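quick one, 228 residues, struct below
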Amino acid sequence: MNFDRSKYHLKSDKLFNEVLPVYMNELHDISTTIRLKKGEELYREGSVPRAVYCVKKGKIKIEQTGENGNGRIVYIYTPGEYFGFRPLLCHEKHPVSAIGLEESEIDAYNGRKFLDIAKRSPNLSFNLVEILSFEFNVWINLIGSLSHKSAKERVALILLILNEKYKIGGKESPITMSKADIASYSETTEETVVRVISFFKKQGILATEARKVIIKNKPLLQIIAEGF
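---
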């Protein structure tokens, strides 16, 4: 049994697929590099969108304010992924905040000029439509999965998703994310995450080193995540 990464992964890394060199050159000319510290905001929920972004280095967490006023992680972008274009296209304010999960570098493309290029580039326009269409399925998959699972199953699912996010060159790497952020992503409490991870350690499913979480038995973790 293999974890179906595609159910929870946006296809934003395909944004510039088959875009003609003339348009790629224009896109390069309207980009600047932004460096973020861990915990630093790139943009805040409710702000006016001004750019399209691509992660070059590090990770960016996307948070939305919940009913209790606390931030809830809804997605994590990793190198090669683009974001910030949906509110720009819809002429809406940002519905989420983008925050450095770790020290990061981001390419920022001027929003107004990006839209102008998209209007002239058929492939870029098509890619935007395709990505936005697929995005809806990903949100439904994640929301549906979390809403119907127990706390232990939710934590297991998010650890599997994070395991994919933290891979380096296709090889698995320890998850270096705080228990508070794992709780925010899995819609549980930090105390619950600590308890569940401790249980998984006793079962030989996980190992921990300081703040690192290492998955030792992925098939069993997936069985738990699926509620079998």
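The helical segments are 21-29, 85-90, 111-120, 122-147, 151-165, 179-186, 190-202, 218-225.
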